[in-house]
Amino acid sequence: MADFKELYLAGKLEFEAIDDYVEEWNNSDDERTLAQFLGLNAEEEDAWISVGEDALLDLLDKQKRTSL
Question: Residue 27: phi, psi to the nearest 5?
Answer without folding.
Answer: -95, 10
